[in-house]
Amino acid sequence: MKQLSMILGLCLLFAFGFTTEVQANDNLQIVVATAKQKTVTFKVYGNCGMCKRTIENSLNDVKGVKSATWDSDKKMITVTYNPKKIELMDIHKKIAGVGYDTDKVKAKDETYNGLHGCCQYDRPKGK
Ligand SMILES: [Cu+2]
User: Fold this and answer.
1) Which of 41, 78, 97, 112 pairs with 65 at a CA distance of 20 to 30 A?
2) What's the CA-to-centroid distance between 107 and ligand 1, angstroms?
3) How far apart are CA 78 and CA 84, in angstroms?
4) Assigned fold of 37-119
């Protein structure tokens, strides 16, 4: 009986040790994943659902950008990207390139003027 409980104890110890190892591996994977990808949220001025499509589409098929979602209520975009493949500033430039001001890059007046009437958001002053 004493022997049996010792074997059981050993089994438990082994099982516990094994579990810890798996957890450590999982943590390692998470670290690797976050090192590869970065998620940022920043201001992008705009109005409506059409703006949302234009803003998000400006980052479609852009190398290094995994996902982009613009919140039309908060006027904030959340972008997940690989910093090794694209710089954050280039993401701002892509968005400004289709006519939308971000908190870092202002769109060209011509591009802004080319937006649909309902999409001509109130531009931030200055900059
Ligand atoms: Cu719009």
Assistant:
1) 112
2) 15
3) 18
4) Alpha-Beta Plaits (3.30.70)
Q: What DSSP letter does each residue of 46-101 carry, written as one string?
A: --SHHHHHHHHHTTTT-TTEEEEEEETTTTEEEEEE-TTT--HHHHHHHHHHTT--
Domain ranges of the chain: 1-36, 37-119
SS3 127: coil
| pLDDT (0 to 100) of residue 25 | 44
Ligand 1 center to 12 CA (angstroms): 61
Q: What is the pLDDT of residue 125?
A: 77
* Distance of CA 87 from the midpoint of ligand 1 (Å): 26
Cα of first residue to Cα of last residue in the chain, in angstroms, is 81
pLDDT tens-digit readout, 68-127:
999 999 999 999 999 999 999 999 999 999 999 999 999 999 999 999 999 999 998 764
